[in-house]
Design a protein that fits this description.
The chain folds into 2 domains: 72 residues, no CATH class; 147 residues, Gcn5-related N-acetyltransferase (GNAT) (Aminopeptidase). With 235 residues, it is an alpha+beta fold. β8 and β9 form a beta hairpin. The chain is globular, with a radius of gyration of 19 Å. The longest helix is centred in the C-terminal third of the chain and has 15 residues. The strands form 2 sheets. Strands 5-12-6-11-10-9-8-7 form an 8-stranded mixed β-sheet, with helices on both faces. A 4-stranded mixed β-sheet has the order 1-2-3-4, with helices on one face. The protein contains 6 helices and 12 strands. Helix content is 26%, strand content 38%.
């Protein structure tokens, strides 16, 4: 009922929510609350215990988790929000940006991006086909940055843009090439592209315990917002 490839909407007397499987690597079910309070959250927790299903929430503002905690949910992941003011940025394309292809993200890119994505991220954070499709729909424009040769990609990034505001949806380098400077090169290319397009700012989320990623963003003048996000879990 809940473990579906695409989002499925559910109507309970005390709330409305979406569910779908996160990906093929973890058993958690994504729970995205549309409407409902403690009553709904307690109901989902009960379903979780009775059916041996683990639900993980979509991102929740840390200041809004009191009802979740009172209902018996726990914090699974903490995320930092990083922001870069592009109007004050002096980023320029890196000298070796010829190894990075920039194009509009399309549905036809999903198949090979999934294969690449699964070489980069830990199981919980790996993309699924449906999550990439949702990424494409989430912004007016989505730009894909492919690092490496066409037949030997070593990383990628997705920049979403709506009304000149941008969100770095995804960025990563395959594990065998991490620490080589390719991630910094890729990020600089994304920022330079956004500056050239006269976009206003860039936001991204990253795990609060991912020190390497946080240092990379700080190095590139991102500021860590006091606003924190969390992912809640039923068990």
């Amino acid at each position: 009922m809940y473990s579906t490839e695409n989002k499925k909407i559910h109507y309970f007397y005390n709330g409305i929510f979406y569910t779908r499987s996160i990906n093929e690597f973890v058993n958690d079910i994504l729970f995205q609350k549309i409407y409902g309070g403690e009553g709904l959250l307690k109901k989902i927790l009960k379903i979780s215990k009775n059916s041996n299903i683990s639900f993980s929430s979509s991102m929740v503002n840390e200041n809004s988790i009191k009802p979740w905690i009172k209902s018996g949910w726990t914090i699974n992941h903490r995320l930092n929000v990083c922001v870069l003011n592009l109007r004050n940025s002096n980023h320029r394309y890196p000298s070796d940006n010829k190894h990075i292809e920039i194009k509009k993200l399309e549905n036809k890119d999903i198949e090979y991006l999934l294969e690449l994505d699964h070489k980069i991220f830990e199981d919980y954070w790996k993309n699924s086909k449906s999550s990439l499709e949702e990424t494409i729909k989430s912004c007016n424009n989505n730009y894909l940055f492919k690092s490496g040769g066409e037949n030997n990609l070593d990383g990628y990034a997705i920049l979403g843009e709506t009304r000149k505001f941008t969100y770095l949806q995804r960025i990563g380098i395959v594990k065998s090439s991490q620490g080589s400077g390719l991630g910094n090169n890729l990020l600089n290319c994304v920022i330079s592209f956004a500056v050239e397009k006269k976009f206003i700012n860039m936001k991204l989320n990253t795990q609060s315990d991912n020190i390497a990623a946080l240092n990379l963003y700080k190095k590139n003048k991102f500021e860590i917002s006091p606003r924190k996000l969390v992912i809640m879990k039923t068990s």
